[in-house]
Amino acid sequence: MHKGNNPYRSIETEVLEVITETPTIKTIRLKPEEQITFATGQFIELTVPGIGEAPFTPSSRPSVKDMMEVSIMKAGKVTGKIHELKKGDIVGLRGPYGTGYPLDHFKDKEVLVLGGGVGLAPLRSLLYALFDRINDFKRIYFRYGARTPLDIVYKEEVKLWSGRDELDFQITVDAGDEGWKGRVGVVTTILDGMAIDYSKAMAIVCGPPIMMKFSTFKLIDLGFEDTNIYLSMEKNMSCGIGKCGHCRFGTYYACKDGPVFTYDRIKNLPNIWD
Ligand SMILES: Cc1cc2nc3c(=O)[nH]c(=O)nc-3n(C[C@H](O)[C@H](O)[C@H](O)COP(=O)(O)OP(=O)(O)OC[C@H]3O[C@@H](n4cnc5c(N)ncnc54)[C@H](O)[C@@H]3O)c2cc1C
Ligand code: FES
């Protein structure tokens, strides 16, 4: 939410804490000078002074208003600098932008939350939003894949989630280590055998493009409807507000019309998995 006439105006934001999740992912706890309310699935633009700006999806509970967390994988210039941030540093934050997950549409439905790697960041926020109104949903299924046990994000919370009765929980890694007693295999290998009414269930998928592609194909094989598969399309973005055209994606602007799209809306567009 931005005040005044300048849509690019950032809100001064203090870094409260930096949490190392994996060798490549850190969670940054932020306190914006003005309170920011976001819907799960929306994104923000974070500016590191003197370096640049990049889009991220908050990973924290939307109902917690006095801070916001973003979980960020080191990819290049801006994310590299974000990984060097320390408690007390100041960054800029603008947003939230885009469409979130339509929770009301999931009411009385079975909901499959399917993540890969750092794709768990927006899904963590989604899970907390679902937990906040758990009785609205028939059952929640959580399936997550990481490359190795070391690459699992939110390790302590994931352990707590595995014990929740209302969550049908499974995780897998592509390659285990000597301490790993869980499943080994890509995330599509843990989608079989769910006691789910596939034709009516909702699926929310977020992860690297290759994971989203093969997960979507698998979900369709299982019987999910195209209209019930929600994908977070993290296209290249700049302005975040439908002005610059960087995120143009077929007939859509990913920043404004998305980043959450149902598969039926985008499946005929070229290069959607790039
Ligand atoms: C709506 C949205 C939400 C996002 N949420 C998160 C999040 O919660 N956590 C997170 O870690 N990342 C998220 N990303 C991706 C993140 O914005 C990019 O990793 C970041 O912009 C890279 O900036 P950089 O300056 O560090 O890298 P650069 O120096 O710009 O580039 C490094 C490499 O990353 C590639 N890259 C740049 N931008 C993107 C992008 N948008 N997607 C994929 N590859 C890219 C470049 O092609 C290059 O190969 C999100 C992206 C979008 C569009
Ligand atoms: S990022 Fe500028 S139009 Fe979408």
Which short descriptors sum up this protein?
single chain; 274 residues; alpha/beta; 7-stranded mixed beta sheet; 6 helices; 30% strand
SSE blueprint:
Blueprint: E1 11-20, E2 25-32, E3 43-48, E4 52-56, E5 68-73, H1 77-82, E6 90-97, E7 110-116, H2 120-132, E8 139-146, H3 155-162, E9 167-173, E10 183-184, E11 202-206, H4 209-222, E12 229-232, E13 248-249, E14 252-253, H5 254-257, E15 260-262, H6 263-266
Parallel strand pairs: 7-8, 7-11, 8-9, 9-10, 11-12
Antiparallel strand pairs: 1-2, 1-6, 2-5, 3-4, 3-6, 12-15, 13-14
The protein binds flavin-adenine dinucleotide and FE2/S2 (inorganic) cluster.
Description of the molecule:
It is built from six helices and 15 strands. It is of the alpha/beta class and 274 residues long. The strands form three sheets. It has a seven-stranded mixed beta sheet with strand order 10-9-8-7-11-12-15, with helices on both faces. A six-stranded antiparallel beta sheet has the order 4-3-6-1-2-5. Bound molecules: flavin-adenine dinucleotide and FE2/S2 (inorganic) cluster. Flavin-adenine dinucleotide binds at residues 43, 52, 54-57, 70-73, 75-80, 118, 121, 234-237, 259.
Helix amount? 10-25%
- The number of strands is 15
Q: Please, what is the average pLDDT?
A: 94
Strand content: 25-35%
The geometry reads as globular
Structural class: alpha/beta
Number of helices: 6
The set of bound ligands, ions and cofactors reads: flavin-adenine dinucleotide, FE2/S2 (inorganic) cluster
- Sequence of strands across the biggest β-sheet: 10-9-8-7-11-12-15
Sheet with the most strands, sense and barrel status:
7 strands, mixed
Radius of gyration: 18 Å
Q: Give the helices and strands as they follow along the chain.
A: EEEEEHEEHEHEEEHEEEHEH
Give the low-confidence spans: none
User: What distance lies between the first and last C-alpha atoms, to the nearest angstrom?
Assistant: 30 Å
